Amino acid sequence: MQAQLIANDIACRRGERLLFKGLSLGCAPGDALQVTGSNGVGKSSLIRILAGLLKPFSGEVSTTGAMGLIDETLALDANQPLGKALAFWERIDGCRDPSRALEVLQLEELLDVPVRFLSTGQKKRAAFARLLNRNCPIWLLDEPLNGLDTQAQKSVESLVALHCSGGGIAVVASHQAMALPDAETLAIEDFAA
Ligand SMILES: Nc1ncnc2c1ncn2[C@@H]1O[C@H](COP(=O)(O)OP(=O)(O)OP(=O)(O)O)[C@@H](O)[C@H]1O
């Protein structure tokens, strides 16, 4: 079955504040969607709603296909060397070719470094390695360029573009516009409550 991500008439409330309402979107294989907006407008909240981690105040999300999320939390054991921390998930995710992600994200030389000692950008690259290894069709990326240097930003942009050109879906929440061919833009301000 083909991957799909649909959100219908979503409203989001955080605390006592209604952040946005009437937000709908639909993504099919090959689609890239950039979610834009100023600080605090609700970009991360929308990503969490799409991921099923936050209940919308109203509206519905439906998905077909597995989702992978990258946000500020790194789901790798901080006390393990990077190689072992990634290998734990490679076994669970049934990854057949972990070396590809290590090469693409230039992580080979960091495999013996405990995850907690990695720099911000190195951690972000490690998160992308795990995402690649999962081989899931729907990518939800919250500020994926944060902490990355120019070269790593370009690598990530290429990875996301490649994912979409191969039939994947990417929803990207970011202050910085990503160079993604044919990406649609969703400005959360347009749905401000
Ligand atoms: N658990 C919470 N309880 C109450 N308010 C919250 C909670 N989490 C976030 N908020 C508020 O919701 C608003 C939207 O937060 P969110 O992180 O979604 O914004 P954002 O657009 O991603 O911001 P940024 O660009 O700074 O990352 C903010 O005003 C924030 O303070």
Automatic annotation (TrEMBL):
Keywords for the protein's UniProt record, in alphabetical order: ATP-binding, Cytochrome c-type biogenesis, Membrane, Nucleotide-binding, Translocase, Transport
Domain ABC transporter: 5-190
Metal-binding listed as a keyword: no
GO molecular function: ATP binding
Protein name as catalogued: Heme ABC exporter ATP-binding protein CcmA
UniProt organism field: Qipengyuania xiapuensis
Name of the encoding gene: ccmA
